[in-house]
Amino acid sequence: MTTTPVKIAHRRMTAMEWTRQLAWRHLVGILAVAFALFPLIWMASAAFDPLGLVGAQKLIPAHPGLGNFRRLFGNVDYPYAIWFRNSILIAGVNAILQLAIGASAAYALSRFRFRGRKTTLLSILIVQMFPQLLAAVALFLMMAKIGESIPFLGLGSPFALIAIFAGGALGINAWMLKGFYDTIPSEIDESAKVDGASHAQIFMKIILPLARPIFAVIGLLSFIGTMNEFLLTSVILGGNPHAITLAVGMQQFIDGKYDKNWGPFAAGSLIASIPVIIVFQFLQRFIVSGLTAGSTKG
Amino acid sequence: MASWSTKAPGLFVKIVFLGTLNAFALWAIPILLLHHTNLFAAYMAVSTLVLDYVFLSRKRIAAKYIAPGVVLLILFQVYPALYTGYIAFTNYSTGHILDKAQALDVMISNSYQQPENGGIYPMVVTTEVTTKTLTLILKNPDGTYSAGNSKGLTLLPTSAVTVDASGNVKSVQGFKLLSDAEVQARIDALQSLHVPVGKSARIDVADFSTAQMTAPTLKYDPTTDRVTDIATGTLYHPNNNGSMVSNAGDELEPGWSTNVGWRNFTVVFTDARYRGPLGLVLGWTFAFAILVVGSTFFMGLFLALVLNHPKLRHKKIYRSLLIVPYAMPSVLSILVWAGMFNQDLGVINRMFGVSIPWLFDPWLAKIAILIVQLWLGTPYMFLIATGAIQALPNDIVEAAEVDGASGFQVFSKIKLPLVLLAMAPLLIASFAYNFSNFGAIYLLTGGGPTIISSGGIAGHTDILISYTYKLAFAAGKGSNYGLASAVSFLNFILVASISAYSFKKTKTAENLN
After folding, report:
1. What percentage of chain B reaches a pLDDT higher than 90?
2. C-beta of residue A48 within 8 angstroms of C-beta of residue B337
3. What does residue B86 show for φ and ψ, rounded to 5 degrees?
């Protein structure tokens, strides 16, 4: 064990030491990175290869160009731009609802001691045991029934999907947020209360601003989660090609047509992936802390 | 603090929220009742009243924050769960969608047929002058004319009708002839106009100038609950599967949905078409979930250990690049993988110059799925494992090293158990997630290749949830919602009991420490 860590850190390693301790680590790291980036690189390469043939694709396209992007946006039968808009809208509205419902419920569960609090907490946990995914058939039949009366909440309507997702908001998010609120010292809101602040003001002006980082994480994860949701989205929206999201649309676009649509598909996937990858890079630190919050809280 | 004084914006939000909610409820409830959707109408009424009470009351502070979420939770999570349980005990499926009364209605109205001797009437469309009732003027076979509306048929005196040289009706006393444009405008009303004739026959509009008489060939008697074929006299009685059947075994279409008890559950375990495939699907569901959690955990932990060396440079770059699979929209990346695994066109076969049917061989398809999930799941495990390793208490590790423990011993006896303990809840959550990871299967292989003995429904890489999806929504093979819900329920019981058991286990482990 070293007693003078500062000096050690500055001492240059000998080549032998470097090879023994670190070279293989770099090798493992590079191999892992290669595996991780493999599909992304092929996707990018295919996107800029105007031939658009999955079977003839080279890693570096012989005549790179934007032909696939033009074909993607020019396709009337598969309206990529509309899917993209649908995805952003549905995922955006859903993220906001998830946060609004989860954040306010967590506030009550963390700050108030009311009758039925324990029951509520336990019920939320138990209900999560039966995820909505497993009820896809029931939700399909239910929304078909409701849609007979209220068409904008029926099959093929994005509002139906948003409503369904909102029903799941009082789940794991509320638990996670409650865990975070619990770490905010209650002395802060006690003193505000003494100053005459109402419960709503404490929530809006003290709790919410302090919890902003975790909102960013939960909001982002729920946004991405919705963009990626496939089963319920295709069951509820599948019948309406103008209401579907990118995930469902792109599957219909490429399913069984890899030979024909590979190039435009890759272009569309690239456009959809790059923003998320960039946002992830910026929020990396928060996301890691958000992910591990679940483990430390138990 | 001055900022605590104003209450106006909160009040405004409250008024807008409650106003919108009540307006929506007042608009929607009558419509729901009109469509016999009584349960949802009742739920909407009750929940609106509860929310009104909660938000207008000065007390109920906690409820103000929780109630909206609970209302949605009950409607879109609790109810569908219960409804799944309910459907699992019915024969709800293609051909058994309606309730009994609706099914009998459809049965009878589908049986209307034109009698063998004629039944075709030349016709003009009119409205009665005084009541404006839509009325058909029909020319009977004997040359007389009758006026028919939804109430019935009346014979007109011969003097009331004037015809031109070619025999077309020119005017009818007491009725106003409609022009072609006027007829066009009433096409919906005309199509739903049935002129009753005698006890059960009726006259319908066939086209713009003719009407036809039809009569039902089936008759339902509610007292005996039997359907009779009027021509042959054959009796049909209800069976226990929501269908009308004759003694000879002929079934009338459509059937209705009805409670069938435990049959959906017994079918899955006894019927050869489902038992064999279900066994395979169940086995692969477990194997898939366990292998995915295990392989991603060890790969993530391995990378975390390797790349967490204090002297290693560019750690940040490694991490940023390694999490890319986690950041990419997974639906798209799985579809990209499916393209890369393509037998003839895929880059993986071309890279090695082979022609391996990755997605069409039962075992290779499973391997392909596991490779993709390893790619997809490792970053998450890597991130968490890195966090867990960095949070390890240093003194224990140092103490072990002072005591002369080897690097491997430090890993296997100290680091691994501590990391496992910290990650256990997430590993269980990941197992539960993968147990129903629909996209991982459906997007890559579609569940295929098909298991022949399953009647083409189940595939070798199907897990329970994708099998459920195919039972319920498989195109062309008919939807069996009842059976699908039974399989869903099975899925739920398995995940719930496994997670409950393991959470209990890990809780005890925590308490022991």
Report:
1. 27
2. no
3. -65, -50
pLDDT tens column, B277-299: 888 999 999 999 999 999 999 99
What's the mean pLDDT in B239-250? 85
A137 chain-B contacts, CB cut-off 8 A:
84, 87, 468, 472, 481, 484-485, 488
Alpha-carbon distance B6 to nearest alpha carbon in chain A (angstroms): 10
Residues in chain B with CB shorter than 8 Å from the CB of A35 are 375
Nearest-Cα residue of chain A relative to residue B13: A200
Q: Kindly tell me if the per-residue pLDDT of A293 is higher than 70.
A: no
Chain B: residue nearest A139 by CA? B80
Cβ distance of A164 and B492 shorter than 8 Å: no
Cβ within 8 Å of A, B 258-317: 303, 306-307, 309, 311-312
Residue A133's nearest CA partner among A221, A248, A234, A231 is A231
Distance, CA of B177 to CA of B438 (rounded, Å): 62
Contact status of B346 with chain A (Cβ, < 8 Å):
yes
Question: Averaged over A70-81, what is the pLDDT?
Answer: 87
| Average of per-residue pLDDT across B455-467 | 88
* Burial per residue of B7-23, b for 16 or more beta-carbon CB atoms within 10 angstroms, e otherwise: eeeeeeeeeeeeeebee
Distance of alpha carbon B84 from alpha carbon B479, whole angstroms: 15
CA A149 to chain CA centroid, nearest Å: 33
Judge whether B487 is closer than 8 Å to chain A, CB to CB. Answer: no
Rg (CA), chain B: 35
**What is the predicted pLDDT for the residue at B26?**
94
Alpha-carbon gap: B359 to the closest alpha carbon of chain A (Å)? 12
Quote the pTM value: 0.83
The answer for B353, left when phi > 0, alpha when psi is -120 to 50, beta otherwise, is left
Kindly identify which residue of chain B lies nearest to residue A59, measuring between CA atoms: B347
Instruction: Provide the CA B378 distance to its chain's centre, in angstroms.
Output: 31
Q: Which of residues 50-79 of B touch A (CB under 8 A)?
A: 61-66, 68-70, 72-73, 75-79
| Dihedral over Cα of B479, B480, B482, B485: its sign | negative
Binned at pLDDT 50, 70 and 90, residue A55 comes out as low
Residue B141 DSSP one-character state:
T
Cβ pair B73, A135 in contact under 8 A: no
Would you call B402 and A140 a contact, using CB atoms and an 8 Å cutoff? no
